Amino acid sequence: MTSVEIQGNTRSEFGKKGSKVDRNNGNIPAVMYGGNDVIHFTVTPAAVKHLIYTPDFKIADLEIDGKHYKAILKSVQFHPVTDQILHIDFLRLIDKTPIKVEIPLRFKGVSPGVKVGGKLIQQLRKIKIKTTPEFLVDELKADISKLELGQALRVREVIIPNGVEIINNPATPVALIEIPRALKAAAALAAKENEKGAKKKK
Description:
Blueprint: E1 3-10, H1 15-24, E2 28-33, E3 39-43, H2 45-52, E4 59-64, E5 67-78, E6 85-92, E7 99-108, H3 112-115, E8 119-122, E9 126-131, E10 140-143, E11 152-154, E12 165-166, E13 173-178, H4 181-201
Parallel strand pairs: 1-4, 2-6, 7-10
Antiparallel strand pairs: 1-3, 2-3, 4-5, 5-6, 7-9, 8-13, 9-12, 11-13
């Protein structure tokens, strides 16, 4: 698991007024839930950019007032116009305590359908899982090496690691091999030619 080290500082003022002061000072208000404590703190935009602006799933290694915590990103609030980060929610990781997270889905293998001109369409980029910190993974994989033209791969066929439960509907498609128009046209033409040939033989 990849982790990002983030330095945090405890907040002295809460509420809208405190948040405004924090933002004016170039900091982002944040909160961490999990366990018996709710911790309010601030982080800098530079400290969290590699955690937020990435397609990868990463763990936050937080240091707040000398104490270390492992956490995951739960939600991020952006300004609707400027896209400035307004607030971040973290969830603390506690051993043997179940969590629900979304992690990236990646493919392995080469599809025979792609080899003959088909196009791989990924319909689900993230999978929602339930697990505990000991079994947490940063991605799931699905094998597309048997996908032919027009075929789809579903959630039930995603490779599930030990200790992980997938929450998505098993029948949901995650990928399909699209048949290009040119191939469809060629197939239709070939079918017509075969039909004409069959009629002539009669």
